[in-house]
Fold:
Amino acid sequence: MSAELLDAVRLRLAESGAEPTPARVAEALRQEGRLLGDAEVLQIVARLRSELVGTGPLEPLLAEAEVTDVLVTAADEVWVDRGSGLERTDVAFTDAAAVRRLAQRLAAVAGRRLDDARPWVDARLPDGTRLHAVLPPVVVGCTCLSLRVVRPRAFTLSELVEAGTVPPGGERLLRAILAARLSYLISGGTGSGKTTLLSSLLGLVGPGERIVLAEDSAELRPDHPHVVRLETRPANQEGTGLVTLRDLVRQALRMRPDRLVVGEVRGPEVTDLLAALNTGHEGGCGTVHANAASDVPARLEALGSSAGLDRAALHSQLAAALAVVIHLVRNRSGRRRIAEVHVLDRDAAGFVTTVPAALWGPDGFRRARGWDRLAALCERGGGVS
Structure:
């Protein structure tokens, strides 16, 4: 089937406003003087439907169970991440205009605008897939399209052990942290698996507890019977209707959460989260971008300054609110793993620092100098078995 024939069928259907049903595609082919078998007609129908309501040539990639990200940098440059780093595929669009059309259609499906006046979009598609797109000339050359797949089911802790994200026996420590209702942050770089690990841990929370999630984009999928999910909203074209993550955290506090969860701490909402964790909301958690667990206090300090919280006040709140930092890394081969678990301490000046308590080891976590403190904290929930 040539591209010219497919374009001719597409044009005839567009002129009539008809949906690409097998009968209508066969009629369009007859008008073009072509007769094809049933298999070929159904192939054209599937392709046209994919263009109209799906993700076009990207659909087979997004359907693969192991694919987490699909990235388009040019019409003939499509990359995927199957958990072992980026791989270039042989999938290609007809031209740069086709990439732009797909990006604009997906943005419209998500209820967002994408055009020359608003040349980028960050949104969530109805199936949960995270969409980011940037149009030329902001991006040089072709429209840049990024799709992050949100799987409908969270990985179990056993599956993360099997995948090597959690070291052998490491699930006992993570379960002890949850049982003791310790407040924790999962830190790491982009694509290191923070959301995946957090979803798995939330699935271990007791069924009698109420989890309230506040997220920029609803990506967490905990396997839990009582979850309330809140999601931010951008302003409309008139500049009204904005709902920020800080708004959501404040609303979440009024919803009787047993576990308050901030999908990603990335701005002024850090002050509301720390305040909440200091007022009886034990077991709260979230994720934060950081290069190492030891960098988390400085990262939170920078975020707190955007809300007008001075350094001394931030560290005072942090010391009382947070107990544990779990840090994830992604190696050169794309494999994700928990590199270290830290507890918090204060230095001579009263500022919060982190102390390594458990470090990654091929046979399990290796104890570090903060282990005794972590073990003592976990005693509230029965200790580390």
User: Anything to note?
Assistant: The chain has three domains: 1-53, 57-150, 157-381. The first helix runs from residue 3 to 16.
